Structure formats: structure tokens, C-alpha cells
Amino acid sequence: MNNELPIQLYKANAELQLQITRLLQESGHCWLEAMQQLSAGSVEETTARIQGLQQAADWQALATLPSEVFRCLYQGRVGDAQAIAQTTAKSQAAFVDGLRQALTTWQGSVSEAFGTSGDSAPFVQLFQPWAQPWSAPAATPQSKAEK
To answer: How far apart, in whole angstroms, are the C-alpha atoms of residue 20 and residue 50?
Structure first.
């Protein structure tokens, strides 16, 4: 072991924490952008409804407004739900990929601090249970019931 081990471990852990913080900030920023777009669309929709109400010249036109508004709102909310689902999927995928990369970098830094390569079997075995949730899913063999 070298005399620089404590500071190297501290640096590796601090870098991991900062990487995770950056990933969380990027994810939050993505959500903010999505909500701003959703909000802007709602403002435009409300403005259009107000204009429709102002342009209605008779009772018959006013009577059809609630059903038209309901149809537009329903279609808009379905589109909003799809947009939110897509944003969620992209954001989570980017976060998981970034977290996987940050953990890989951290593992390499800690390996270097201990003077071993990142492929060292004892080191990998030590951290394998902890990192398993973030590793790529492995193919599972088919059970007898599935064959």
C-alpha cells in the first residue's frame, strides 16, 4: 500500500458523488424542460378556448363549446401522457447509463489506488453484489417449464 491511498480513495469517492449529483441535476433539468413545454401548450390551449368563447355569436355556438372543449382536452391529455412517458424513459435510461459509467470510473480509480488493475478478480468479486443492480441484465437459461 502506498501513502497516498487515503487521499486517492477520498478523491475517487468525491468524484463519484459529484458525478451522481450531476446526473441528478441533468435528470431534473430534463423534467423541468418537459413541464415547461407542457405548461406552454396548456396556456395556448386556454387562450384558444377564450377566443372561441369570445367569437361565439349565438346560443347554439355556445352550447357546442363544452363538448368541443372536452374532446380537445381529452386528446391533449393523451398526448401529454405519451410525452411524459417518453421523457421518463429517456431520462431514466440516460441516468442509468451515466450511473453505470460513474461506477465503472470509480471502480477503476479505487483499483488504481490499491495498485491493482480494474480486472482484478478479488476486487471485482468484492464489489459485484453492490454493483449488480446497475450491470447489464444477463441472459437467463430457460427453465424446464418454458421448454
So the answer is: 45
Structural domain boundaries in the chain: 5-131
Tens digits of residue pLDDT in 89-106: 888 999 999 999 999 999
Contact 91, 28 (CB under 8 A): no
- Nine-digit cell string for 22: 450531476
Cβ-contact 134, 107 below 8 angstroms = no
Provide DSSP, 66-126.
Answer: HHHHHHHHHHHHHHHHHHHHHHHHHHHHHHHHHHHHHHHHHHHHHHHHTT--TT-HHHHHH
C-alpha cell of residue 140: 437467463
Most confident of the ranges 51-60, 65-74, 105-114, 127-136: 105-114
pTM: 0.61
